[in-house]
Specification:
Layout lengths: L1 H28 L2 E7 L8 H16 L3 E2 L2 E6 L12 E6 L1 H4 L10 E3 L11 E3 L4 H14 L4 E6 L4 H16 L3 E2 L3 E2 L5 H6 L4 E4 L7 H12 L5 E5 L19 E4 L6 H4 L8 H20 L4 H9 L10 E7 L2 E8 L1
Parallel strand pairs: 1-3, 1-4, 4-5, 5-6, 7-8, 7-9, 7-10, 10-11, 11-12
Antiparallel strand pairs: 2-3, 12-13, 13-14
Helix pairs in contact: 2-9, 4-5, 9-10
């Protein structure tokens, strides 16, 4: 009798433990699955996009595919009947891909990096845009002791024009002598050399960057010994992710900075600047969902507005060309 009573009590203890574990794990088992959709530009997908994606997936893996009370499923397409979920918590993308989002209700979205001078509304911008590139370049020029600048642009190229205008405005405010921008053409070489600038700043062109190499090489051949710098005006095919012909000693101002030490220590997918961009963008999404404890777009945007700024983690950066590649010099606020 005593033995059967002990057996019965043992069963009760085991059931109690199982029940406690089940209660503890209930939030996990009942965790709702939602999607984070990466809207990729298939026409321009290449080394930059591959690296950005690696960073985004590394951030997701770091949280075991979870944010708050939700399971997170990564998708590179709009959800269909075959997917686990039809609830989209957030979209990652660039300016031209995010405009493809459903319009009602306006979903939460994070812009990985700027592709147009005017970013889409209702986006959390991660990383510096073209105006910041121009201002950062002007501040670097002032610090480097530059006084006179010849400003080159690519036409028609609204991104190059936006960088140039920001540089011109910020440079003049800092006391630099900056002429009106001129188009980067080979027949302007003598004019540029004759004006004796301390810096020739090319506000950037579209890949594959043949004009940059031609203009800078021609300037050196004509005896120009001042500083040469360009901008990353086509970030989806970033200069840092390609191997164009480079003029030794020329500089690049880019929206892609290497990972800060505290981030580099955590990222397992590499610490290149494009990996960092994807990593921080996904971290912004996951932290926003966690803080909001909701996937309602209004609640997500409200939560995002209370989060610490990611700007400090994504400054512009200065690189210098050497031995056929760009080497990191410093970050530019």
């Amino acid at each position: 009798m005593k033995r059967s009573g002990a057996w019965f009590l043992g069963i009760l203890v085991v059931l109690g433990i199982v029940g406690a574990v089940a209660i503890a794990l209930r939030p996990v088992f009942q965790r709702e699955t939602v999607a984070v959709v990466y809207l990729r530009n298939q026409r321009c997908w290449g080394p930059t996009g591959d690296a950005v994606l690696r960073g985004a997936l590394a951030a997701l893996k770091e949280t075991s595919d979870r944010a708050g009370r939700y399971r997170i499923e990564y998708m590179d397409h709009m959800p269909s009947d075959h997917d686990v979920t039809d609830v989209v918590a957030a979209y990652l993308g660039t300016a031209d891909t995010l405009v493809l989002r459903p319009s009602e209700p306006v979903p939460f979205a994070v812009s990985l990096f700027a592709l147009n001078p005017v970013e889409p509304v209702h986006c959390l911008q991660i990383g510096p845009g073209f105006e910041r590139q121009g201002k950062a370049a002007a501040a670097w020029a002032k610090k480097a002791g530059v006084q006179r600048v010849v400003l080159l642009i690519d036409l028609p190229h609204p991104r190059s024009e936006a960088i140039a205008e920001a540089f011109r405005s910020a440079g003049r405010a800092l006391g630099l002598a900056v002429d009106e921008p001129i188009q980067a053409l080979p027949d302007r070489i003598d004019q540029i050399v004759g004006s004796k600038p301390d810096l020739v700043f090319y506000a950037g062109e579209e890949a594959p960057y043949g004009t940059t190499s031609k203009i800078f090489s021609a300037l050196r051949e004509k005896g120009y010994a001042g500083k040469l710098a360009t901008a990353d005006a086509d970030p989806e095919v970033s200069l840092l992710a390609t191997r164009p012909e480079l003029v030794e000693g020329s500089y690049l101002v880019s929206p892609f900075a290497p990972a800060p030490p505290e981030v580099a220590a955590r990222v397992t997918a590499g610490t290149g600047p494009h990996v960092t961009a994807g990593y921080l963008a996904m971290k912004a999404v996951l932290e926003t969902i966690d803080r909001a404890d909701s996937v309602d777009p209004v609640e997500l945007r409200r939560a995002a507005s209370t989060m610490p700024s990611f700007d400090a983690l994504r400054p512009c950066a200065l690189y210098v060309a050497g031995k056929g590649r760009f080497e990191f010099v410093e970050t530019l606020p």
